[in-house]
Amino acid sequence: xxxxxxxxxxxxxxxxxxxxxxxxxxxxxxxxxxxxxxxxxxxxxxxxxxxxxxxxxxxxxxxxxxxxxxxxxxxxxxxxxxxxxxxxxxxxxxxxxxxxxxxxxxxxxxxxxxxxxxxxxxxxxxxxxxxxxxxxxxxxxxxxxxxxxxxxxxxxxxxxxxxxxxxxxxxxxxxxxxxxxxxxxxxxxxxxxxxxxxxxxxxxxxxx
Length: 208
Description:
- This protein is mainly beta.
- Helices cover 12% and strands 45% of the residues.
- It is built from two helices and ten strands; from the N terminus they run αβββββαβββββ.
- Strand 6 and strand 7 (135-144) form a beta hairpin.
- It is globular, with a radius of gyration of 17 Å.
- This is Polyisoprenoid-binding protein.
């Protein structure tokens, strides 16, 4: 019980005082343009600058984070009516990376994400509602480890500007969600490694 209380307390610290990786809005960074500058249309995930980070409490001692990459997908939106937004993103599980190569291998194994059996995680948005001038609440279905569960993402517009390298207009968003990994059948070491998992999305898109 003492270990469990410590784990919950450490998770609370991770949500409020952990490094930038576990926060949804890096206040010391600012993007270009305004949300109202976004042109309606279809945008494709820009995989080289899109990251999905996860953060857990590790044995009640410290928050620990890793990332997924190589995302692909598309988003169709009109800033004037976010409720019509279409968003689908797929991420390969084998892209998982932490500060430990040994742990990376373990996370891909059947004990954790089981990348061989469940090679992809997918998110499909079912509802998008504006919550502020540059924020929105995205509800959708996350499929992970062969299980589909509804999740809610708090999203914030970060910036939009022409990309001088590929000559396309880019859009960036920040997102944050909290899930219980056991809801997806990933329950190894709970509660020593917290069930509650913070997901952070640094999402980059290019105009189609």
